[in-house]
């Protein structure tokens, strides 16, 4: 292995002047400089500093814990992983455990379906330490295809499925392929998950925003979408795709089958690629999830001439839902209606990074193919799954009720996803104080909230919002009500101070 | 969960004309179209098709197994994972196993250091299913810093370390930051690992090739590097960085401390960022690995004025070495001498993808901090580690000897990495036959080799080679000698046919 000679440790070199280096802030890739990603921005960095201080025993802070409500990170908070998933993954990581199945059963309660699944996946991937096919292991893609078939009632082709390192990496791939220069435009909902605007910045492409309707539970306003599209086209932008996040992030809104049809109508008429971010498809409290793929197939049966050429990509992930395994970076996307030559370029692009994490791929397989009713792990799986689902709904409602008690705060009823996105009406004095610090008023509010309570949320400006409105996004993942009461108390003091 | 109504399954939609879709091969991102990545290109796709055919019982092929020698994928072939690593990972995936430590010990032979390490890592990450800090979990970065300190004798700063999803994703990050437009140039060795040229294509930046010296065991020719640099500068290219792959891929060559100094000299004089791809740092058969970081720190002590502003980034990975866990996508890079404002942009860029796979991060920790001599898992670890190392060396030598027996094949003695990169002198008739198929002669050769033997290697053109020379890259990972004899036999028939 490496040599272990202990030479004198050099002290950290002092920072030198910018001019002496090759790279400085003014000459690196300007697209990176321009990109914004508030979910892990200044507030998150500060929250992490507070966390470290508390861990080091610092008693000077006015709170005793940091609540990371800035990001949908279920297992960082209270959510326990689903036992079946993790039992299988433990066997995949150490197949030698399979040499003593009796001990697995008697000492650790591993059921036969856990063992059988691990053996099946190992037979496919050989080792989770080996590169797989760049699109993902064939058997896993077949399993995803069957899941889509069961969900939608329409077949799916494993060859059109691409496993990914979380949905984020899928979005990155797709926008890379679609955007061919500064003139390429993509319709993005506002508010949106900032992955979209950030990636468009990185690609130096044009973001064409369309406003969601807050007063209609953050529904998709098709007229607004058409207006934005026409304006962009009139300005010379080559609008190529429309992003729909359903259920919505940060809004939680669920699209009806009719709204989905309207989006597909616009896509068919205007030749837009539909990017359906469906990672919250199981986080639905109100109504029922309809996939874009299903609706498209229905419409293709009804009016093939109109819909047959619609290009749709649908994304899913192990990060959200009741799975909540975001640290594993697993996900997939399905290409529908793409030119095979374009799909081949998608393949080449992803192959440069070799393959998505194989253990994450296996987790995708477990997510889309959980224990069946007659299998021994089913009962526990179902109990855990339902428990997580009910817990999320309960916490969403508790937070929603707290917001209703707060002066100047309005929030749409929770419908799905993992977030609430309330409006805050801030007094003029607060807006002035924010301006004096060269900050947007909602950013100012969120920073003060963090400093006073340790609760980290993300200002609405990080997602986009109508001018002169202020919001913040908070997850409803954190357990207990203490942190909610911290927000309530802070808010009333903040309002009093700035009135 | 999702609805399971079984509606009639629609047949796959027929492909429509290109014109009716938004995206076609001529209007997508031209940089993707231009990128080349032969390691997973046409040959690899064909090899996979053969594999599937064989698995389906097809008896029509002239071979009974496919040997994927196109890619350094140790565990796809014979290499067994190191037990200590996988035992710890199994506990991280299912922490409930820790509830019965006695059974872990008695039924599965888990040692106390395995259990202690798992508990330590779990205390840090909470759950491998949770997002970590975007740069990687702090404790893991500290562990990497200590490893670098032990290896080099110079301190490392955890804040300057970025855990990645394999080294590939690190290279992608760095080239994204460095390249600010078509005029930005990066010196890349020829032959090289095509990740570099592919990523530069994706960024529409300029690849400035410098030739390695085949006759000097693929050594780095500093004069050639300077010449390429001056030519590129004269042509108006803003050369910003130099890539060094050490030990080399595809060449296996190891740089001496003197050669490293010469590269650092050029970097200091010309203000170039040094990108040191050191993923094969433990795959060294001849001489000893010296890291760029260590050499730089030594020179900084000797002549601070000259070297203090050198910007260096060093990459490492769990994919190669005796670890061979490429499917886990783990790695890191260390920034040395970077402007803090630039480092902050690196952070923002990676944060958009949230975090590298957490289980891969934990594997990085295990790689850099293996069982110590007085710990119970040490003996087995050392035995497995040495066994893999010796096996690799033995196979490299066997393959090298086979190449010496082959007419018109010349190969440098194996020095390191996982590859041999022989020259093949092809008869004119073979070159003509290749041209008739619109192929480079080495591509033609490799394709015929695959069709005849099931052995998949990568033509030299995929890595770059001097004009009118032909090579191929093969890993020496596959066990046994049968596949080597397949190559020998094919080669002699090929030469006879085309003479």
TrEMBL record, chains A, B:
GO terms for molecular function: transaminase activity. Its cofactor is pyridoxal 5'-phosphate. Residues 113-481 form the Aminotransferase class I/classII large domain. Keywords: Aminotransferase, Pyridoxal phosphate, Transferase. Pfam families: Aminotran_1_2 (PF00155). Homodimer. Belongs to the class-I pyridoxal-phosphate-dependent aminotransferase family. Alanine aminotransferase subfamily. This is Alanine aminotransferase. It comes from Aspergillus cavernicola. The lineage of its organism: Eukaryota, Fungi, Dikarya, Ascomycota, Pezizomycotina.
